[in-house]
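Sample intake sheet
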Amino acid sequence: MKTPPVVAAAQAGEAAARIVERRRTIGDPYLDEFIAAGHDPRELIRVALKRYRGLPDWVAQADVDDVLVLHVRQWWEWAVDDLAVLEHAERLLMNRREVGERLNLGSGQAIVDRIRARRRQRAALRGEPDPAELADVPPQQEDRTAAQQRWLDTHLDALDRARAAVLEHKDLGSDEAYESLLDVAAEPWSPATMTLMSYAAFDLRQTPAVAALSDDHPLHAALDEWTALAEQYRSVG
């Protein structure tokens, strides 16, 4: 089954406004229901599907078009919620097979695959780079990538220590920094992980609350440790 096209929040808001305005235009006796539901896409969908009898064809058909816009937006938001639940289960170290049984998924690997797919969908919804594309490497860079991976494999303890030190202070970051750090919290070290971790550290540094910390705050030391490792990594190959 193909993934539906992304519907931005603004597009969904415009679709909801069109539904209400059409009902206002025709003097719909149930207009108050539509106005009351206008702030909740799911409720507006329910009202539109319920109050369809006796409508002019142009109104009924236009409502369906806009309800579909709202419906697809709800699907994308559900995908993000699905990811949030699965990532929370991962943070709690729950058994993947047992979690998968709730979703009719047959293996722990299926959970991993679903998380990866949902992360790509979340990135698409937010207009961010596809996480999978960050890992794509042109053929001419294969030798350098192999050297970088060897460096990563021989510095796992230092990388894990630096990441853990930064993660201890993730609550100080903006929502974007917090979520970016969670994205890489349990990822194995690879060139893609290094890229994502660098983005997350940059977002964390840009957060006003972090910038206002005293120079001797432990987070600054953690970020400096990470920066030193990242610079060593970038010099490889």
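Comment: The two ends are 41 Å apart (CA to CA). The chain is about 70% helix and 0% strand.
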